[in-house]
Amino acid sequence: MKIPALVLGILLILISTSGFAQNVKLKNLRNGDLIFVEAEQEHLSGAINRVTQRDTNSSFDHIGIIEYDQGNLFVLHASSKKGSIREGIKSFNQTQKKDQNNLVVYRLKEEYQSTIPKTITAAKLMLGKPYNWSYILNDSSLYCSDFIERAFRHAHIFQLEPMTFINPSTGKIDDFWKDFYQKQGLEVPEGELGCNPNGLAASDKIIKIGHLTL
Questions:
Q1: N or C: which end of the chain has fewer CB within 10 A?
Q2: Is residue 13 part of a domain?
Q3: Domain count, the chain
């Protein structure tokens, strides 16, 4: 039975905005697409996800933005290992050192696509800055979601929100974060403004496209 064009169109929209895991090939990536990295269960990755996860279908600990330049795909991001850099998509994938198919593509809705050129320019101006291990906002170092929020700030795509380091299963500051900040001689910045990959993924200005296959 032939599916009417209108019905097919509605189905495609529902699929693209739901948690349905489609596969996205490199050739289907667009300039300005966001690449989220799925979180692990342990170590820093697990600690980030424990206190920031909003949706049981989405658990992320890192994010970058795609730049499509003269037929080549690059990721602009703030790396914990390399600082704020621009690197090829395959190099980006290799540095994650996780299971394959752990990269998830999100895309700005069509009404915000015009903001991307200025966003890419803003992101490039931040390259070279070191990684911010305190996750306390400052202008001299950046962490991954901070890098992305600042790049899009001119268009108000994302918002800074009060950070929390409370483990929802205990209602108390997560032990990992207590130790993490104690080693830096800092108080846990509970309630200070910031952002995280899970929070950015929840923006109503972007849609989930699917898992990236390299």
A1: N
A2: no
A3: 1
Provide the H-helix boundaries in the chain: 5-17, 43-52, 89-96, 116-125, 144-151, 175-183, 197-201
Q: Tell me how far the alpha carbon of residue 203 is from its chain's centroid.
A: 11
Residue 37 CA to its chain's centroid (Å): 7
The predicted model gives 75-91 an average pLDDT of 95
The residues near 32 (Cβ < 8 Å, ≥ 6 apart) are 65, 66, 107, 108, 113, 116, 119, 120
Distances (CA, A) of 26 to 19, 39, 75, 117, 137: 20, 21, 12, 20, 33
Location of structure tokens 């198919």: 101
Q: Is residue 15 part of a domain?
A: no
pLDDT of residue 138: 96
* CATH, residue 52: 3.90.1720.10
Domain containing 136 equals 21-213
Token output for 13 = 């929209």
